Amino acid sequence: MHRSILVLAAATLVLASTCALAQSPPLTLAEAQRRAVERSRQLGAQDASIVASREMAVAAGELPDPVLKLELQNVPIDGPDRFSLSADPQTMRSVGVMQEWTRREKRDLRRERFERTADKTQAERDASIAAIQRSTALAWLDLYYAQAMAGSLSEQLAASQLEIAAAESAYRAGRVSQADVIATYSARTGLEDRLSEFSRRIRNARTALARWVGDAADAPLASRPPIDRTHFETGGTLENHIARHPDLEVLRRQEEIARTEARLADANRSADWSFEVTYGNRASPFGDMATIAVSVPLQLFHKDRQDRELTAKLAGVEQARAEREEMERAHVAEVRAMQTEWQSGLDRLERYRTQVLPLANERTQSALSAYQGGKASSGDLLMARRNEIETRLQALQLELETARLWAQLEYLIPDERVIPVSMFTPPAARTAP
After folding, report:
1. Angle CA(215)–CA(221)–CA(227) in degrees, nearest 5?
2. Would you tell me the crossing angle of helices 306-351 and 246-267 to the nearest 10 degrees?
3. Is the CB of residue 272 less than 8 Å from the CB of residue 99?
4. Which of 77-91, 120-134, 291-305, 334-348 is least confident?
5. Does the structure show a pLDDT above 80 at 184?
6. Which helix (H) or strand (E) holds 345?
7. What is the predicted pLDDT for the residue at 163?
8. Least confident segment among 72-81, 106-115, 152-161, 204-213
9. CA end-to-end span of the chain, whole Å?
10. What span, in angstroms and rounded, lies between the C-alpha atoms of 139 and 143?
C-alpha cells in the first residue's frame, strides 16, 4: 500500500509540472518570444550604439572648430627694455582666427560613414532579434515535448497499476505464476525510473526557458503552433528569404562601409587648406599690423601614403564582398539541408500517425485480449506494452526534432510582429564621466 502511494505521488508530481499555475493564462510561443525580446539587454545596447552613430554622423558633417590665437611676439627678455611691451617696435600683441577648411565632399563622406555604421548596427540588432526568437522557440519546444513525454509515461504508469492489481488477482486465483507478478512490478519500476529522468528534463528545460522569459517559464504552456508550414512555403522563394537573412544584411552593410571608406580615402588625396587672419597691435608710436596666411599640406609622398591608403581600402571592399558571397552560399546550403530534414521529419511523422502507432496499439490490444483469454503470458503483454511505450516516445522525439528544425527555419528571419521600436533616448549633453 505504501509503495502504491509513492508511485501515485511521483506520477502526480510530473503531471503537476505540466499544469502548474493553472490559474495563469497559458504561455504561447509568440508570447514567450515577445517577452524574451523585451527582456533583452543586448537590444538596448545596440539601440544606444545606433543613436551614437547617428549623432556622430551629424558632427562629422560639420567644419572643424575655428582656432582662436592670442600671441605676444618679439618681447625683449634682456637688456634695459626686457619684458617691456612698448619699448621695442617689433613687440606686438596679436589676436587671430584660424580655420581648417575641409572640403564638402569629405565632410559628406565622413557623415555617410557613420550613417552606414548605424545601418550595420541596425542589421546586427535584427540578427539579435532573430537569434532570440529562435533560441526562445527551441527552449519552449524542449519544455513542451519533455512534458508531453512525461505525460505519456504517467499514463502508462497509471495503467501499470491496474496491470499489477490484475496480475495479483490472477496469481491468487492460480491462473499466473509469481514470476508474472514480479514482471509487472519490474515493468512499473522501469517506468518510474524513466519518469524520474523526464522530470529532470522538464526542470532543465524550464530553466533554459526562464533564461529568456523569466518567471513566465513557470506558467503552463499553450498548444504548440503548427510545424507543417513555414514562411518559406508561403512567402516566396528560398533565394528571396536568404537575401533577407540578417547575417547577410550585416555583411552588406559592412560592404557599404568599406565602399564609403574607399571613397573617403580617394578624397583624401586632395589636401585640405587652412586659413588664418591675425591682427597685431604695437605700442602707440608704431603702427598696427594684419596678417593673412594660407596653409597647404604638401603631399610629397603621395605614392607611399595616400595611394597606398586608397589601395588598402579598395582591398577592404573586395574582402567584404567575398565574405558576403561566401556566407550566402553557406546559408543556402544550410537552409536547403534543414528543409530536407524538416520535410523528411514531416513524412516520417505522418507514417507514425497513420501506420506505426496504430499497429503498436493494435498489438497491445491483441496481447491484452489473448492474456485475458489465457492464450498469452503476462510477458507477452508487457512486451507489447513496452513496445507501444517506446513507439510513442520515439514519435514524440521525432516530432521534437522536426519542430526544432521548423523553428530554425521559421525564425531564420526575425518575425516583424515582435520587433520592438527603439526605446533608447539619448541623454542630454553633459561632461563625460
Report:
1. 125
2. 170
3. no
4. 77-91
5. no
6. helix 306-351
7. 66
8. 152-161
9. 71
10. 6
If one counts every other C-beta atom within 10 angstroms of the C-beta of residue 68, the result is: 9
Domains, the chain, in order of start with CATH, read: 2-413 (1.20.1600.10)
The larger pLDDT score, comparing residue 16 to residue 38, is at 38
CA distance readout (Å), 327 to 11, 247, 249: 49, 8, 11
* CB-based contacts of 370, cutoff 8 Å, min separation 6: 376, 380, 381
Distance CA 113, CA 155 (A): 63
Range among 18-27, 224-233, 314-323 with highest mean pLDDT value: 314-323
Helix H or strand E encompassing 103: none
With contact defined as beta carbons under 8 Å apart, do 146 and 280 qualify? no
C-alpha grid cell, residue 234: 508561403
The answer to whether the CB of 46 falls within 8 A of the CB of 78 is no
The DSSP line for 240-294 is HHHHT-HHHHHHHHHHHHHHHHHHHHHHTTSPPEEEEEEEEE--TTS--EEEEEE
Interior CA angle at 142 toward 141 and 143, to 5°? Answer: 90
Cα–Cα distance for residue pair 261/91, rounded to 1 Å = 48
Cell numbers placing 24: 495563469
Which three cell numbers mark 428? Answer: 542630454
Nearest to 235 by CA among 416, 34, 31, 33: 416
Average pLDDT over residues 21-37: 83
The answer to whether 219 touches 25, Cβ cutoff 8 Å, is yes
- Is residue 425 over pLDDT 70? no
Please report the pLDDT score of residue 175 as a whole number: 62
Please, what is the Cα angle at 288 between 286 and 290, to 5 degrees? Answer: 150
Alpha-carbon span 389 to 112, nearest angstrom: 63
CB-CB contact of 242 with 328 (8 Å): yes
Residue partners of 174: CB distance under 8 A and separation at least 6: none
The average confidence (pLDDT) of the chain is: 83
The x, y and z cell numbers of residue 131, run together, are: 537569434
Query: Residues with Cβ < 8 Å from 183, sequence gap 6 or more?
Result: 167, 378, 379, 382
For position 164, what pLDDT does the model report? 66
Please give the helix or strand (H or E) that residue 166 lies within, else none: helix 104-172
